[in-house]
Amino acid sequence: MSEPICIRVVIRGRVQGVYYRAWTVGAAKERGLTGWVRNRSDGSVEAVLCGPAERVEDMLEACKEGPPSARVADIERAAHDDPPPAGFRKLDTV
Question: What pLDDT, on the 0 to 100 scale, is given for residue 74?
Answer without folding.
Answer: 97
